[in-house]
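Hey L., structure's done. Input below.
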Amino acid sequence: MADAAVLEVRRAVRAPLRAVAAAAPDSTVLVALSGGADSLALLAATVAEGRGLGLRTGSVTIDHALQRDATAVAADAAAIATTLGAEPAEVVRVEVDGGGGPEAAARDARYAALCSAARRHGAQAVLLGHTRDDQAESVLLGLARGSGARSLSGMSPARELDGVTYLRPLLGVARATTRAACDQLGLAVWDDPHNLEAAYARSRVRHELLPEVTRVLGPGAVDALARSASLLRDDADALDTWAAEGLAAVRGSDGSLDATLLRTYPTAVRTRILKRAAIESGARPGSLTASHVQQLDALVDRWHGQGEIALPGPVAAERSCGRLTFRGR
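Output:
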């Protein structure tokens, strides 16, 4: 009989895999496999549970080529995946050369490779091994950025990106449980040395801040942070839906927005409408800050004849005759 940690991880993947099987019988799912405890435990559980549901399980290991032994580590992970029954057990080497810092560049390269693999193999979903501890870390990072409810809502259990469905079935499972599951299954775990480097904010949160929060507030702090993320995600989703409906209501046939009607919306909804309108007009999402949105909101709620607002993109917004207009600069 399987040990408790193995069973807990299998229970976590069961419902999302059943949903995939119901929507697409006899289909393929892929697990993003790093060789760490989280993704190894996820892969083992997905192979075991997927087999009973008629699903084929494959793995994709991304070789970022950022460490001296990265290629060997990726090959070892793929070999373990094969022994677990994953087919395919693929290694994809990527070039990490984007902007926004090394973490962001590696993440962008990784998701691009996973998206390509999912399309290549006709996968219905890609499973990611983020745990409850990862979720708690995301909430603390969001608090530090001061970027609102969407940031504090952490990672979503399911997400569509570039036409690919990403699932995170382990968001309710502790990191210690995935480690125990690997021990119980006799799986050799690789510990990424980057996770110990103080240069990375998430690493500092993981090894310094979160242990201190747990020490001060008690062992339930991690679960409480993850639970807060789930509650805030529901709120953020509702506000985003309201904003989408609001944008359609205030937008005229020429694309301009009715400032008088906009002002009737609560601030939390109005600012989302303005942000959505700016992005749809060409403003760069990653560069559009809270300060930009506040300036846009001033055109609606604190109008005193101010001039146009320059937005990244480049896009400009201005108010004239009671309407807000976005245009390229």
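The radius of gyration is 23 Å. The chain has two domains: 4-132+156-194, 251-328.

-- N.
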